[in-house]
Design goal:
Length: 236
């Protein structure tokens, strides 16, 4: 499989390549495919951090195309990690659906870096959806003792099969996707408070992420160091 210009750029920017091996595969609610993989030395070499993601390389007619996926339960001690793929009409989903134990896929680590602030924030405000739920869960795990308010957008009831890892002091609200995401934006912006000791993390559809981020910065006056945002996907 020939790497395209993206692969060359990533390597020039310090990207590190690994080969993952499928250890098991299972369907989740018929809408997701969950794969357990051997990491090929990735976690030992790079470590693990909340919201960590990697780039997977898929062969499309002999050409390599990459897509980013957030790690689920990365375990450096065993060298294992899990990935969850939404099932839709795309080459990544087709690969995941058809994957068998022993299959391999190339991965690149480049660009993923996040740590909770030190000292720890007094509250977490997290906005996500099914695509970014693994990242949200990693934040809830990393800040297990920190109170958190979470909004999760869903387009289908089956998306709730991917369970938030909420503790008693974590408040989770599922928000139906309506009006091209405007309902989520309105819901979050109406409820989101300002707070100098809080951390805000926004990771949903790209346009919604921009609107919520703009509200937090311009309307609430949230400091740049308090806010992390990343568009996880883009509506067609």
């Amino acid at each position: 499989m020939k790497r395209n210009w993206e692969g060359l750029v990533l390597r020039a920017m310090g990207g590190r390549d690994f080969r993952l091996t499928v250890l098991s595969t299972e369907s989740v609610a018929g809408r997701y495919q969950r794969l357990l993989l051997d990491d090929g030395g990735l976690l030992a070499a790079c470590g693990a951090h909340p919201t960590m993601w990697i780039r997977l390389w898929f062969d499309i007619n002999g050409r390599a195309h990459q897509r980013a996926y957030t790690l689920v339960d990365p375990d450096p001690a065993t060298g294992r990690l899990t990935l969850e793929f939404a099932i839709h009409d795309g080459y990544a989903a087709r690969w995941a659906t058809n994957a068998q134990v022993g299959d391999t896929i190339d991965a690149t680590v480049q660009g993923s870096a996040f740590q909770l602030p030190d000292p720890a924030p007094e509250h977490l405000y997290l906005v996500g959806d099914a695509a970014s739920l693994p990242a949200v869960n990693s934040l809830l795990d990393a800040g297990a003792d920190i109170p958190a308010t979470v909004w999760l957008e869903f387009a289908h009831e089956d998306e709730k099969a991917l369970t938030p890892r909420a503790r008693a002091h974590h408040d989770v609200t599922w928000v139906p996707r309506r009006d091209d995401g405007q309902h989520l934006v309105d819901t979050v912006c109406a409820a989101l408070p300002s707070g100098e000791t809080a951390h805000y993390w926004v990771g949903c559809e790209a346009a919604s992420t921009r609107r919520i981020t703009r509200h937090a910065r311009r309307t609430l006056g949230v400091g740049k160091h308090q806010l992390t945002s990343l568009g996880y996907w883009r509506a067609a």
